[in-house]
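worker-03 picked up job from queue 'complexes'. Input manifest follows; two sequence lines, order preserved.
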Amino acid sequence: MRKTTQRQAEPGTWDQHDLLRRLCHALDIAKLTVDHLAANGYADTRDPFKNIRPEKIIAETAVLLLAASSAISHKEVASRIHAIAGQLVPHARSDRAKIGLCLEPSVAWDYALPHVCLSRIGYGDPVFDELLRLSLQAQSHAGRERLPHRMLEQEWAAMGWARSKHASRPDALRLARLSALHRPMDLLAGTRDDLYAFTHALMYVTDFNLNPAPLPRPRAVLLAEAEAMLAWCLDAQDYDLSGEVLLSWPMTGRTWSPAAAFAFRVLAHVEDQAGFLPTPSTRVDEAKARTGVERIQYLLATAYHTVYVMGLLCAMSLQPGFPPPAVLPVSDKKPGSAKRILEFIDADGKPTHWRDEFDQLTGPQADALAGFLLHIALRRKTASRDFGKLYDLLNVAHDLELADSPAASQAAELLERLAAYSRISANAQRLPLEDASLGTSSFVQHDAEGQQATA
Amino acid sequence: MGNLDQHRQIVKQLLDSKAVDFTAIGKVVAEAGPSLSLAEDPGDFFCGVNRIFIRVYRVTDPGTPVENLGELAGSTGVLQG
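worker-03 finished. Artifact:
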């Protein structure tokens, strides 16, 4: 187990040495990952679902190096970045990547992303540039349809290739307005894919603060939604997405909300306890069943991604003025707010890591997180279809002046829709279908036929 | 191993396991197929190329929790700082 979290004794910002230690740990794991997995990826003979393509590992390592370059003024970071970059270059510009540029110009940026990231930190290659240029000139170079956040990724890669530190990004805002960043997220029934789209769109728009483009909505609006997503991820102990959502704060500004600051503490605590930021993929029994290189590769393959996410978070937090607060801020929430919301959460009896950290807080600090607790409770009650408790919860939130969040508003809308359904359903039982106020739409008919046909 | 190879491997394992009852599926198709073939369902034809009766999805098990943190620390040497 690693040494425990270092925090400054007085109110202020998170200890810089601790952030550096965590970033260097991520970079050390990156070096091992490149050593063991960059050439061939990972093929798990026992569980093919754990297989990883080498391209994914190479690209994600290159992105980590680019993001970490914002902290390259620290010599321990610089030495690691240069060592890993040197290792990564032959993989990023392998014959496989070069032939890919020739054969599949519609995914040229995907093949070139590691090259672009390495070029941006000083490891250019004019030969690869020339092949990439030819690929981008192909008639079919734009011949693939992509989701908006993937379109943003393409724009981001193209901007990076322009090499100018402050290259203009005329398309970034237009594409961001097509993405999940431009419209309210579904905070009660959204999926991991939705969160992935949000977090990655934000990474590409902000360029890890190296050359950010304008946000499509105000920071405060985006973060209000991110806060609900963060609560959901922490409660699910999904530390991969928790870290990616938490990046929303340092990638867009210098201030951390109480919930974001708390989430950073939880991730740091979990990392200290496990020695790395874990996911459910890393299983103790599966690790113990392997020995030698096979065990090392298993551990790296199942853990490297979330380790990188923690590295990204610390790199972003190391920018001057961007670290999270060392001591959780208090707010003007009503005293006892947290306790009233916790009653809804404690009824579930679900042990979580965030709760261990929460129980160490003072009363005012806990009350500052009442909104965070509300988001957890809203999501849980919605997921368990306990709409009676959801109603009660909203009433309590209203009493505590917490009901002005996007998630609370969406929960109120949900209850309205269910009430409407209840009325319609009751009418339908009393009246013949043709007399009911809401007739069966052609969409419903079509959908029913489709269901029948595919049953 | 490429994606295609992985998919083939998974499909082969499923077939070998006899987890899919093709006889039962065939019986349902035999019963419902004729009427569905004649159904006027725009853009979606039983006898056309768009109909896929069986899909196998990879579902991430949301119920699998993160392991005990202390046990992870004790058995993941290479990941420790």
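worker-03 released lock.
Chain A has two domains: 16-162+185-317, 337-454.
Residues 258 and 329 of chain A are 6 Å apart (CA to CA).
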